[in-house]
């Protein structure tokens, strides 16, 4: 299942997805970011993720995006939410 949603901080989606995947042994992927009328839309592929984990992921991500919007931040703390290692 794929989800396409407007996000305040697309880079934070990458950070959160990496941490969530490691903690829950999932393979959720942030596929793309498109800017439409100046707003970033992120496409997320949940692949074979269970419904329970999809709901947990989306709930947590919504809270993170709301918090970052209020604080006017675009990244999560790097020590707690590192970026994934670069693919070679």
Describe this structure in words.
The protein is of the alpha+beta class and 88 residues long. It contains two helices and three strands. It has a three-stranded antiparallel beta sheet with strand order 1-3-2, covered by helices on one side. Helix 1 runs antiparallel to helix 2 (51-71). The chain is globular and about 30 Å long. The mean pLDDT is 94.
Spatial order of strands in the largest sheet? 1-3-2
In total, how many beta strands? 3
The separation of the N and C termini measures 27 Å
SSE class = alpha+beta
Number of helices: 2
Biggest beta-sheet profile: 3 strands, antiparallel
Query: Rg, please?
Result: 13 Å
Beta fraction: 15-25%
Bulk shape = globular
- On the 0 to 100 scale, the average pLDDT is 94
Order of helices and strands: EHEEH
Percent helix range: 40-55%
Low-confidence stretches: none
